Amino acid sequence: MNPAEWRLRLELAACYRVFDALGWTELVFNHITLRVPGTPDTFLINPFGLNYNEVTARNLVRIGLDGTPAEPTSHPVNRAGFVIHSAIHGARQDAHCVMHIHTTAGIAVACKQAGLGHDDFYGAELFGDVAYHDFEGITVHDGEGPRLAASLGGRRVMILRNHGLLGTGCNVFNAFRWMWTLQRACEVQVMADSLRGANVPLSDAVRLSCARDAAAFEPRDQLERMLFWSVLRKAGLDLRALV
Predict the structure, then answer these.
(1) CB distance 52 to 99 below 8 Å
(2) Disulfide-capable partner of 20 in 7, 8, 52, 141 (CB 3.0 to 4.6 Å)?
(3) Average pLDDT over the chain, rounded to whole?
């Protein structure tokens, strides 16, 4: 295996441990995928049936956009994960990493007709950058793939209505930063809406300024890497477990 792919496998395996540490897990369901360098039509995905803390660099499965394993593997791939992630990877060349989660706060906001608000610190950072996709049932049908990609368009994150959250990025660290922001925005919104009294609205000018300042960290990824590795340090992960 070339060193570039091995490095990305380690980063993706670490990301599964980050999600596990944060509680962004749904038993053996949901996925984080990463495009393989030099082979734009293949990506890495978790073996179906393993917990997130059991994913390693070696047992990640490399599959093509058509769902066919690109290398020998004894592990199956979840059909729903393939449909969602292959559609985004295939349509967005800049989406090297794609994340999908079913957190309680994320699904709760996805069930609200108005969707995500932009009147808090985190929601404002995502102003103008949140897409929506209407629920069509369990995503196991190929025909939904193009509609998923069309719903996302050029935006960074998407709320799958009545379903969950999706995030994209140029690498694992970048995608994690924006997924974390989206998840925090959902958590804050759920808590704020549970309190009596009206929420304080922000003007579009303030929202735009906040979103612009948040995005100003790109393309430098120092902050994104710091956020990512801080979670692993807090979890006390032995990096040898990623192999």
Answers:
(1) no
(2) 52
(3) 93
Rg (CA), the chain: 17
Q: How far apart are the first and last CA of the chain?
A: 14
What are the distances in angstroms from CA 110 to CA 92, 164, 242? Answer: 23, 6, 33
- Phi and psi at 39, nearest 5°, equal -135, 75
pTM (2 d.p.): 0.94
Nearest to 224 by CA among 183, 184, 172: 172
Say if residues 177 and 126 touch (Cβ distance below 8 Å): no
Helices (H), the chain: 3-22, 79-91, 104-110, 121-125, 144-152, 172-193, 204-215, 222-235
What is the DSSP secondary-structure string of 143-196? THHHHHHHHHTT-SEEEETTTEEEEEESSHHHHHHHHHHHHHHHHHHHHHHTSS
Q: Which amino acid is at 240?
A: R
Half-sphere exposure of residue 159: CA atoms within 13 angstroms, side-chain side: 26
Pairing of strands 130-133, 61-64: unpaired
Per-residue pLDDT tens digits for 212-230: 999 987 656 788 999 999 9
The pLDDT value recorded for residue 218 is 61
Q: What is the dihedral of CA 88, 94, 96, 100, to 10 degrees?
A: -40
**CA 35/CA 68 separation, integer angstroms:** 15
Second-level CATH architecture of 3-242: 3-Layer(aba) Sandwich (3.40)
For the chain, which residues make up each domain, given as ranges? 3-242
At 159, phi and psi to the nearest 5? -100, 120
